[in-house]
Amino acid sequence: MKNLSCFKAYDIRGKVPEELSEELAYKIGRAFVAELNAKSVVVGYDIRLESEGLAEALKCGLTEGGAEVLDIDLCGTEEVYFATFHHETDGGIMITASHNPKGYNGMKLVAAGSKPISGDTGLKEIERRVIEEDFKHSDSAQNQPGLVISETDKSAYIDHLLSYVDLSKLKPLRIVMDAGNGSAGAVIKQIAEKFPFKCFFVNEAPDGHFPNGVPNPLLPENRSTTSDAVKQHQADFGIAWDGDFDRCFLFDENGDFIEGYYLVGLLAETLLAKHPGEKVIHDPRLTWNTIDQVQKAGGIPVQSKTGHAFIKERMRLEDAIYGGEMSAHHYFKKFAYCDSGMIPWLLIAELMSKTGKPLSSLISERMEAYPCSGEINYTVNDVSAVLEKVMAHFASQNPRIDKTDGVSLEFDDWRMNIRASNTEPLLRLNIESRGDNGLVWGKVKEIETLIN
């Protein structure tokens, strides 16, 4: 066996048990301890039906390897990140398949300080150790089995979330919270109790059968439940989370879905008001609005390649206050440069409380200034050939070219980014303009002609 299909570029995920079994989870635990020389590891798991069994097997592997396990039980991915840096353990593993279909599961791995473990930073070595069953430990003294310590108290995590906002400035906003029967349901009521909000809970019961569909609010067909609840309760805004709540998606007071791109600039502006002059990391897909808002707020925008491992690495390098991707991943310096699905909506609630403006008003100004297409996906046979065709088509117009991630072409009044997906056989297109929505969709049509 030369490789395992569940080991991906950034994490581990696959069908259970065909690609990821309890036996394999045990071996991953052994390999993790050996590779990191880990003496303490945080373990948590999401609501999927297979997650608890995989967690038990993983914990067995970790403890037999000699590590102590801090078991935080059912949780969200960010709770593993928090527990890893808060308790200063040598690593953390979250068992989750996030928004993948039923029948899938996986693992997200971090080292000390919640630094991501991906293909370039140890994941391939862990895979090699699993395949070769090389579980030799560099510390010969660590040959006694470790213990499992249960740590299900979420109060330190919730106190950390409270530190991002000024409680005295918050108004009694009406907020719909749609957990989608995912892991968020286990924590949102505890969080809501600490704030002066009137909260309306939707699908809050954690349920791995997903009676209301797999929680993935990026799919338009999954948004109506949250949208309808916002209208029904006359809420100020709504929140929907994915399965492991490392991403949150917002709906304004009209029940309209907010494009993730515009939240990046809004969150940057909010944080820069408290920390002027700091750096903000953004991805290359859609940039003009973010750059404009960051600069106007006195910050320094810095572009990074798309993907959590790249964003986190660049944030550490630049010591950035915040990083945001249009895909609804938001990263915070104080959160060990990790992504959180809870901190963003708290910051937005604080901004709305301070300004007295509805969310639609805060967003509409930015949408009018920089209308965008949102991400459009195409299935193509030859990604490279399409990229070359697009570049050749626009070459005579002398665009500014950037190849940080795929190809970005920038003109005076519009820009585009076209790139291959890191995780799926797709070509992804994003277009934005300076105040001309018609131009955006005209260019989408022009490029689609080239793609087809």
Keywords:
452 residues, 14 helices, 5-stranded mixed beta sheet
Shape by Cα distribution: globular
Which structural category fits the helices and strands? alpha/beta
- Placed side by side, the strands forming the largest sheet appear as 1-5-4-2-3-6
What is the end-to-end distance? 39 Å
DSSP strand tally? 20
Helical percentage = 25-40%
Give a short account of the largest sheet: 6 strands, mixed
Q: Quote the average pLDDT.
A: 95
Query: Helix count?
Result: 14
Q: Give the percentage of residues in beta strands.
A: 15-25%
| Low-pLDDT segments | none
Rg, nearest Å: 22 Å
Structure description:
The protein is α/β, with parallel strands linked by helices. It is built from 14 helices and 20 strands. The protein has helices at residues 22-36, 51-64, 77-86, 119-132, 155-162, 188-192, 224-232, 260-274, 288-296, 308-318, 343-355, 359-369, 383-394, 437-451, and strands at 12-15, 40-45, 68-74, 91-95, 104-111, 148-150, 174-178, 198-202, 237-241, 248-251, 279-282, 300-303, 322-324, 330-332, 338-339, 376-378, 400-402, 407-410, 414-420, 427-433. A 6-stranded mixed sheet has the order 1-5-4-2-3-6, with helices on both faces. A 5-stranded mixed sheet has the order 12-11-13-14-15, with helices on both faces. The longest helix is centred in the first third of the chain and has 15 residues, at 22-36. The chain is globular.
Helix/strand layout:
Elements: E1 12-15, H1 22-36, E2 40-45, H2 51-64, E3 68-74, H3 77-86, E4 91-95, E5 104-111, H4 119-132, E6 148-150, H5 155-162, E7 174-178, H6 188-192, E8 198-202, H7 224-232, E9 237-241, E10 248-251, H8 260-274, E11 279-282, H9 288-296, E12 300-303, H10 308-318, E13 322-324, E14 330-332, E15 338-339, H11 343-355, H12 359-369, E16 376-378, H13 383-394, E17 400-402, E18 407-410, E19 414-420, E20 427-433, H14 437-451
Parallel strand pairs: 2-3, 2-4, 3-6, 7-8, 7-9, 11-12, 11-13
Antiparallel strand pairs: 1-5, 4-5, 9-10, 13-14, 14-15, 16-20, 17-18, 18-19, 19-20
Helix pairs in contact: 1-2, 1-4, 8-9, 8-11
